[in-house]
Amino acid sequence: MKLINTTNSYSQLVESQLLNTDAKLIKVYSLGRTMVVYTERPQIIEIVLENKGRNVQGSEIIQVINELLNEKSRENYTIVKSKGLVEISAQI
């Protein structure tokens, strides 16, 4: 699958998060039916994968890590999984 930048379609969400949190950068992607929200904060990157129809697949997690995290961040990240949702946190 291809990771497609859909940030412009979520301008209100992005603007709200930038105004009300310490986020420096927010991007929203589509990975098929999985929504990916990339948030860059001071010293940390947070990525949330959400699929309302099924659990997020391992191949989707690997693809997102490889495409959105740099080499240094790929060495030190944590993953939290729940039904239909995956949270990845990585040090910058």
Name a few traits of the molecule:
92 residues; alpha+beta; Streptococcus thermophilus LMG 18311 protein like; six-stranded antiparallel β-sheet; 6 strands; globular
Task: Give your account of this protein's structure.
The chain has 92 residues and is an alpha+beta fold. It has one domain (3-91): Streptococcus thermophilus LMG 18311 protein like. It is 27% helix and 41% strand. Strands 1-2-3-4-6-5 form a 6-stranded antiparallel sheet. The chain is globular. The mean pLDDT is 95.
SSE topology:
Blueprint: E1 3-5, H1 11-20, E2 25-31, E3 34-41, E4 44-50, H2 58-68, H3 71-74, E5 77-82, E6 85-91
Antiparallel strand pairs: 1-2, 2-3, 3-4, 4-6, 5-6
Give a quick account of the main beta sheet: strands, pairing sense, barrel closure: 6 strands, antiparallel
CATH class: Alpha Beta
- Helical content, roughly? 25-40%
Low-confidence stretches: none
Q: Per the principal axes of the C-alpha atoms, what is the gross shape?
A: globular
Q: If you compute it from the alpha carbons, what radius of gyration comes out, rounded to the nearest whole angstrom?
A: 13 Å
Structural class: alpha+beta
Biggest sheet: strands side by side, in what order? 1-2-3-4-6-5
